[in-house]
Write a sequence for this structure.
């Protein structure tokens, strides 16, 4: 918010001079509706002349309904416009995505993942802590994916809250939604649809649920994630991708 200016005023009766603060032009986010990048999980980083954006996807992916205030959330209506801005900004060279999420709304998560996978700029993701449920499509959507050695990813079927009609149409709807997730994950990673379906429907690992927990190296061995690494590895990969793209652009312009 803009700083207030101090104005000297004189009391007509006493003759005393006092200072009053008069507000300047209001530029607060409450009145403009614009939130700082940091509040929406996006920060800017510059290194050796390269300008990148770092997006954090944390907590629960919030969909069309607002979650309780005590929940840490990633809101798709904040993230998607920022991703579009990154793609269209010529001054931005690449995007690093830091993931630590328990999952959340399927359609909101897929919407974010689709935007990331469709970007032409270099994108690198890294799973830190956890990239569970719908966090898996978000992790594989980048052109190169990393996972910390201590991180994990939970693969499980689609769930729902509230009342569900016990009719065949409901089960068909869940199956089609699961197929959407499976197709996206397998298209953007090196795991086969058959193997991913096996992990989703595994009944021998989780006590109260169906699915599979993959730790860092396991996720790489299954072909879900490209490499095990740290944030510095992900950054180094991103700068390398930026350099290769710049070199290819120069060669193309010379031709």
């Amino acid at each position: 918010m803009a700083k207030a200016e101090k104005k000297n005023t004189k009391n007509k009766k006493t003759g005393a001079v006092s200072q009053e603060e008069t507000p300047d032009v209001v530029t607060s986010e409450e009145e403009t509706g614009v939130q700082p990048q940091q509040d929406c999980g996006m920060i800017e980083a510059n290194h050796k002349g390269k300008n990148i954006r770092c997006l954090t996807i944390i907590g629960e992916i919030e969909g069309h309904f607002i979650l309780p205030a005590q929940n840490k959330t990633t809101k798709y209506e904040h993230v998607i416009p920022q991703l579009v801005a990154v793609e269209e900004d010529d001054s931005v060279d690449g995007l690093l995505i830091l993931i630590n999420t328990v999952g959340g709304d399927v359609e909101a998560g897929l919407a974010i993942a689709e935007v990331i996978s469709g970007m032409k700029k270099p994108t690198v993701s890294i799973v830190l802590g956890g990239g569970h449920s719908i966090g898996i499509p978000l992790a594989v959507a980048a052109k190169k994916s990393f996972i910390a050695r201590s991180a994990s990813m939970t693969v499980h079927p689609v769930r729902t809250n509230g009342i569900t009609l016990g009719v065949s149409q409901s089960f068909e709807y869940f199956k089609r939604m699961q197929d959407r997730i499976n197709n996206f994950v397998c298209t953007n990673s090196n795991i086969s649809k058959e193997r991913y379906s096996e992990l989703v429907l595994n009944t021998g690992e989780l006590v109260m649920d169906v699915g599979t927990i993959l730790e860092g190296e396991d996720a790489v061995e299954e072909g879900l994630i490209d490499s095990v690494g740290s944030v510095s590895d992900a950054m180094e990969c991103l700068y390398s991708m930026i350099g290769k793209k710049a070199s290819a652009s120069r060669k193309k312009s010379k031709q």
Q: What stands out?
A: Helices lie at 29-32, 76-88, 106-117, 135-140, 168-187, 193-200, 216-221, 231-254.
